[in-house]
Design goal:
Dehydroquinate synthase-like, alpha domain, six-stranded parallel β-sheet, about 10% strand, binds nicotinamide-adenine-dinucleotide, binds zinc ion
Length: about 375
């Protein structure tokens, strides 16, 4: 499994049972859910409920399903999953729908697993590749990475309405691009080292190819898709990027493997400075750090920094709140990133905290020089939340 140095000999690819994407797809939710269960529970925060309740109510009524929402507490902790599992038991719910961002979706999976029922992901933004996977990322109440929790099955259904994605703030799609670009950078490193994937076993050609396809689509379509979403439009580029961020990156990271970028993301959550940032924003710092750590060709690193700056992702420590911190803070980040169970040990060479510290510190001057040479703006520190 992830983060071990064992060299499995079998290959695996795992996936959700069905993936549905398109403008207005939420109108089909009832008919798809009715094939999975008869008594669903929808887990979402109030913002997402406000955006989806009327469409879901019509769709569920048409499918003969009751409509029951439960408010998500906001943090994907073990305690929150236990609380939702109790509600599931109390009402005899037989399928739980995680509705919203990655945090609500991860909690629905965990609660569904606790209660022994099936689960469905309905992302309302293309902000992460959480919806398709058979795992949740568990956090502490304070927002620090705690662990990966693995399940024996993927969601029975992933349904994403691209109209909702286009109406959401563009920052969510941008974060999803950051999460998805890391997928190929990490899959490639795992492939080089013949390392284990999150699905267990080694990567199939299919898994690695899907990770690469996600990357190719994003270089081609991310910039026009972000412009379209800023204007609340669904274009073919938006459809392509939503598929890359959600389905391809999801299958890719899970079945082709994680390496340093996500471990560094996890390390960044260990310090409060980064807590206002989206998952995919922190992951982008992990991607740049991994490229430096593995000694990728200079032109490749510079191109990646320039592209992701144009996408609107952070490419400097300044932009993730770590511009002028004491060494102790960065040391906390790299110690957490190199914890024994972390996926950084899937890199094709031995990685120690000192190396990661130097790579992380190298991000700031390199990105500043790339941005200056490309005429891109100087980085600004994030507003405090
Ligand atoms: N399990 C996995 O495989 C996996 C993979 C990647 C990320 N993750 C996890 O996903 C989480 C991050 O997810 P996230 O970045 O989506 O953040 P999030 O889930 O914390 O929140 C997203 C925010 O977006 C809002 N929102 C959602 N849709 C909206 C819309 N259409 N319009 C307006 N607002 C909307 C929600 O109200 C919420 O406040 C982290 O916990 C991360 O670890 C898990
Ligand atoms: Zn991720």
């Amino acid at each position: 499994m992830a983060g071990t140095n064992s060299k499995p000999t079998t290959r695996s690819l795992i996936s959700p049972a069905r993936y549905v994407q398109g403008p207005g797809a939420i109108a089909e939710l009832g008919s798809h859910v009715a094939r999975i269960g008869a008594n669903p529970l929808l887990l979402s925060d109030d913002v997402v409920r406000g955006l989806t309740e009327s469409a879901i109510t019509s769709s569920f009524e048409e499918a003969g399903l009751p409509v029951r929402f439960e408010e998500f507490g906001g943090m994907p902790t073990a305690a929150e999953a236990r609380r939702v599992a109790e509600i599931i038991d109390k009402h005899g719910v037989d399928v739980v729908v995680g509705l919203g961002g990655g945090a609500a979706i991860d909690t629905a999976k965990a609660a569904g697993d606790n209660a022994g029922i099936r689960w469905v992901s309905v992302p309302t933004a293309a902000s992460t590749d959480a919806p398709t996977s058979a795992l949740s990322v568990v956090y502490t109440e304070e927002g620090a990475f705690e662990s990966y929790r693995f399940y024996t099955r993927n969601p029975d259904l992933v349904l994403i309405d691209t109209r909702l994605v286009a109406n959401a703030p563009a920052r969510f799609l941008i974060a999803g691009v950051g999460d998805a670009l890391a997928t190929w950078i990490e899959a490639r490193a795992v492939q080089r080292g013949n390392g284990p994937t999150m699905a267990g076993g080694r990567a199939t050609r299919a898994g690695t190819t899907l990770a690469r396809l996600s990357w190719d689509i994003l270089w081609e379509h991310a910039l026009p898709a972000i412009e379209a979403v800023r204007a609340n439009l669904v274009t073919p580029s938006v459809e392509a990027v939503v598929e890359a961020n959600t389905l391809l990156s999801g299958l890719g990271f899970e079945s082709a493997g994680l390496a340093a970028a996500h471990a560094i993301h996890d390390g960044l959550t260990a310090v409060p400075h980064t807590h206002g940032l989206a998952h995919g924003e922190k992951v982008n710092i992990g991607s740049i750090t991994q490229l430096i750590l593995e000694g990728a060709p200079t032109a490749e690193i510079r191109e990646f920094i320039e592209f992701t700056t144009r996408v609107g992702l952070p490419t400097t420590l300044t932009e993730v709140g770590l511009g002028d911190v004491e060494d102790d803070v960065l040391r906390t980040v790299v110690e957490a990133a190199t914890a024994p169970e972390e996926t950084i040990h899937n890199m094709p060479f031995e990685v120690v905290a000192e190396d990661v510290l130097d790579a992380l510190k190298a991000v700031e001057p390199l990105a500043r020089s790339v941005r200056a040479a490309a005429g891109l703006p100087e980085p600004k520190a994030p507003k405090r939340h």
